[in-house]
Amino acid sequence: MDHVADAGAHSDQAVITGGPEPKHIQLSAVLARMASEELGPGVMVPSERALMVTYGVSRATVRKAVDTLIVDGLLRRVQGKGTFVVEPRLESRLHLASFTQDMRRRGLRPTTRLISCEAVEPPPEAAASLGMTGGGSGGKVWALTRVRCADDRPIALENGWYPVSLFPELDRRNLTGSLYEIFASDYGVSIDSAEQTLWGESADRSLAQLLESEIATPLLVFRRVSHSGGQPVEHVVSRYRGDRYQVHMSLSRDETSPS
């Protein structure tokens, strides 16, 4: 009932009327202001019935207005619970930095939950990226799985593979911080270049549980192969929550490209 009262308190400031602008567009504007100025991230918006009563519109109008804001990324619908204001996404520019460095630059506290670290035979894709074809201990990698958090909130799941021959006894290190800092300080290996590929997926049940998200939450997936002095040292796949993370890219026209 509190949400109904909140919605009603502002009905005289944003009356939904007939006219050249469709009612669902007017209601979308009202809800957008309500979400950003009054409710805040993670707060549930008034129910469909409350909005219908407050603004004198049909259920179809309410749903169309809400759907518009969901598509715009301002609201999200949780089955059986309601519709909530989306939390602002963390934005990153594509650059060569560790997760820890990236979060610190934003003024956030990076933390890591270590899921597993074991020496295994590399999967084919990682073996190819790392230039590893032989067997034996020299052909093994550390398979490292970690959940990366910002201010204790899960942002990404990392699955990484690192040559055992380059990083002996890595499993004895504290792996809840920056691997790049460990590589540089303990092994004299500094990451100086990388190739990165990006695609999209959705979270299955196990991923959603680790990331504390809804099933089918959109994910931004980054595959990075990192090098030190021209030698490949890292193959890592990071799955970021698309509802909490976005990427910024600056583009310029290649003057050598054809018109």
TrEMBL record:
PROSITE patterns documented for this protein: HTH_GNTR
A Pfam family annotated for this UniProt entry: UTRA
Alphabetical keyword list: DNA-binding, Transcription, Transcription regulation
Domain HTH gntR-type: from-to ranges: 21-88
GO molecular function: DNA binding; DNA-binding transcription factor activity
Residue span of region Disordered: 1-20
GO annotation, biological process: negative regulation of DNA-templated transcription
PANTHER family linked to this entry: MANNOSYL-D-GLYCERATE TRANSPORT/METABOLISM SYSTEM REPRESSOR MNGR-RELATED (PTHR44846), MANNOSYL-D-GLYCERATE TRANSPORT_METABOLISM SYSTEM REPRESSOR MNGR-RELATED (PTHR44846:SF1)
Name of the molecule in the record: GntR family transcriptional regulator
Source species of the chain: Nesterenkonia xinjiangensis
